[in-house]
Amino acid sequence: MNIWLALLGFATMIIITVVLLKKKMSILLAFSVIPIISAFIALLITHSSNFAVIGKWIEAGVGKTYSITLMMMFSLPYFMLMADTGLFDDIVKAILRHVKISAPIICMITVIVACICELDGSVTSVYLITIPLLLPLYQRFHIDKRVLPFIVSVAILIMSNTPWNPRMLRAASLINEKGASTKLFLKFMPAQIFVIVVLLVIAVYFGLRAKNKGGDQKVSISNEELLAQFKDTELTRHNMFGWNLLLTAFLIFMLIAFQTVPQYYVFAFGLVVALAINFHDQDQQNKLLKKYASSLFPVAPAVLLSGVVIGVMQESGMLDAMVKALMAIVPAPLGPYFYLIVALFATPLMLLFTNDTWYYALVPLIGAFSVKYGVPLEVVVLTLFMNFGAMISVIAQPQLYIATDLDGISMDEYIKFTFWKLWGINILLVVFGVVAGVFLPKPLWA
């Protein structure tokens, strides 16, 4: 073990994390510059003068992330287009037309609406749609309004398990194989369903608590009054709902059933077809593409450039040295379970990371360490995928300011109300994942 390479690797990881947490440097600059400086130092440590090899390290790393970035470039605009046409609004309205409003139902509707809205992968839009829509109901039925951003935040995390979600694409970029995001999505689905059920139970609890305190007494609201809160725009295409739903279902079917077809092509096909059938004017199509392109920055370039970090850390030998250092420190009996220990404490640990440094600094290290004990990288990525602490960290998720402002509570109130509940769900998920075999190399019953 080269202790100096190990120390350089840990220093690189810490420096990237600190500069991003302190907002001293943009993600793109941190991922582009810091690993290159470390690469030159690594060559000096190993007494090598072959500086040209750094280019090969970069190429190897970016080669692992370019297909994921391409998918993001087409999948995110596709679902933003579907949101603009009113596809998700129409689904929500179809649900609201057939329910009788009460406090427990309102809390359950919060889960459903937030999950549907998060299908486009945009955290901001979920808060902007769900909280203004449902806050008046929370107030009229005397439900603790701190419940609203809490439920929405957990729902956002739950629905990050879709093959096109930015969180899933970050996780999938760590696994160098075709269709990685679809593969992870399918394997994580039992855990996702479990968390949805847990969140619905929590929602019913808070609704019943409000009802038992008299929140439902002499309170009524018509479905028409609730539906009136949905506003159409010039982009709304109610007449295309069936076609848009059919196209979306077809794309998801293609992702799952034909994993040999490049994922980015599936969504490239979907995007151009959706634009063509919804908007016949090519000038309007181009305007929409420019609008959606702005939402890709800096996330898509950050995913691409994360390959620089991964490539330099792996190809230079830093990651291997860091793993050996960890193996010397962590007691051997704990080695095979170290990733599960990290997962159990993921909520408070996430306060020390951003989303990018969680996926591109911590997870690769824990993954490489666990592989030495026979735990596949895929299992580690699945176990550490749903980083719950992001939803109480304004550094990792600055959109939380939007949520609290819309809800009319302070950030302190939100964090105090949310922290222990999030951590509890985090622990329940890990326990379920172990029992169900999702988070183990082999099921317990094998």
Distance between the termini: 35 Å
Structural class: mainly alpha
Sum up the overall morphology in one term: globular
Helix proportion range: over 70%
Tell how many strands the DSSP assignment holds.
0
Oligomer: single chain
**Unreliable spans:** none
Mean pLDDT: 91
Q: Please tell me how large the radius of gyration is.
A: 23 Å
- Percent strand equals under 5%
Keywords: Membrane, Transmembrane, Transmembrane helix, Transport
InterPro entries: Cit_transptr-like_dom (IPR004680)
Membrane topology: Multi-pass membrane protein
Subcellular location: Membrane
Characterization of the model:
With 446 residues, the protein is mainly α. It is built from 22 helices and no strands. It has a domain at 66-295. The model has no long low-confidence stretch (mean pLDDT 91). The protein is globular. The longest helix has 33 residues, at 180-212.
What descriptors fit this protein?
446 residues; mainly alpha; 0% strand; membrane
Structure in a nutshell:
Keywords: Membrane, Transmembrane, Transmembrane helix, Transport. This protein has helices at residues 3-21, 27-45, 53-62, 66-85, 87-96, 103-117, 123-140, 147-158, 166-172, 180-212, 223-227, 241-257, 263-278, 282-295, 299-315, 318-329, 338-344, 346-349, 355-371, 377-383, 400-407, 411-436.
Give the SSE map:
Blueprint: H1 3-21, H2 27-45, H3 53-62, H4 66-85, H5 87-96, H6 103-117, H7 123-140, H8 147-158, H9 166-172, H10 180-212, H11 223-227, H12 241-257, H13 263-278, H14 282-295, H15 299-315, H16 318-329, H17 338-344, H18 346-349, H19 355-371, H20 377-383, H21 400-407, H22 411-436
Helix pairs in contact: 1-2, 1-16, 2-15, 3-15, 4-9, 4-13, 4-14, 4-15, 5-6, 6-7, 6-8, 6-10, 7-8, 7-21, 8-10, 8-22, 9-10, 10-22, 12-13, 15-19, 16-19, 19-20
